[in-house]
């Protein structure tokens, strides 16, 4: 493994970067970066050309940190042109495995394998009805997706050398930082802007993954519809509610550039003018090989007052139950479909006795810090749910002085994929 390993997570709404160094006792955090990708629905004032160039501009801001620029890095792709699939067939000689997997992939991958990058991993052999069975995961990624991401990273000054997929990077971050309890099944839910990554860890060698085509953007749209705000205002309110009590905020849709995506985030490599917590973002699920920053009810909640009155002062007259109720209404409206998809996935694996149960859920991604979301998920899924911060298990002493107080605690839950990528051997 390289002395310094870098993971670059290019999501829908932001770029995230993590630089780690492996130590004798684990990993040491060297640098973390994040920059907004301005999107037309939340930044209608931007020209089409500026929107098209937004991912590159965000990467360029992150690359201003010398810990990332021109360093070998791991990157990931996700979406409908990424196809991970479980395979299982009777045990065969190892020399025949690759050909058998390719044949299997041709039957189950939804696009032409001639245009795909293909890789696979084998799991431990199983016994079914007294006979040995080979089981594993094959992943196909359309080459256009790989080439597009590679060219983008190179243009921004990065050196991409390792390709992964988001769901596996997520699982990698958890196993490297938290370890695996063989008696426990943990579901990781990384809520991105347009996609939610779901990884279910069952023992040291089995991870079941699914990308669900919904995420934090639905929360912004629900806030917009329920409170009569336009989408830019609703997006700003969502972020503010996750990081600052609304009582302390100064206003409605305008102002507050550090949270509004107005360019205040310059990669967080050195001077930090403010920070802007943002989430990132196949509809298939497959088998694969703390100090926590919790936000509870009370002041850190959306209000039920009409239109999110600009002063925020009306909140003081609401009791905690009213505020939590308002948050739950927004969450139910926005994330009901996501909850249903997660429930269906849990049922699929439990009913087929692939996993005995789901013991706990760990939430991450920018939206995972929205007030009351942990209790909402726990109540809907019937499983204990906690916020997961992968930085909590890293040595952050050398990096902490570069950032404002509590910065790493605030940003950690959104950095799970980038952290898992940085832990890949380069």
Largest sheet: 6 strands, mixed
Share of helical residues = 25-40%
Number of DSSP E strands: 15
Shape: globular
Description:
It contains 13 helices and 15 strands. It has helices at 48-52, 54-63, 97-108, 143-155, 166-178, 216-227, 231-243, 257-260, 320-351, 373-381, 397-400, 407-411, 416-422; strands spanning 4-10, 14-23, 26-36, 72-77, 82-90, 116-122, 126-128, 131-142, 159-165, 185-191, 196-202, 207-212, 285-288, 360-364, 385-387. It has a 6-stranded mixed beta sheet with strand order 13-12-11-10-14-15, with helices on both faces. A hairpin with a 3-residue loop joins strand 1 and strand 2 (14-23). Helix 5 (166-178) crosses helix 13, helix 6 packs across helix 7 and helix 9 (320-351) packs across helix 10 (373-381). The longest helix has 32 residues, at 320-351.
Kindly summarize this structure in a few lines.
With 426 residues, the protein is an alpha/beta fold. It has helices at 48-52, 54-63, 97-108, 143-155, 166-178, 216-227, 231-243, 257-260, 320-351, 373-381, 397-400, 407-411, 416-422, and strands spanning 4-10, 14-23, 26-36, 72-77, 82-90, 116-122, 126-128, 131-142, 159-165, 185-191, 196-202, 207-212, 285-288, 360-364, 385-387.
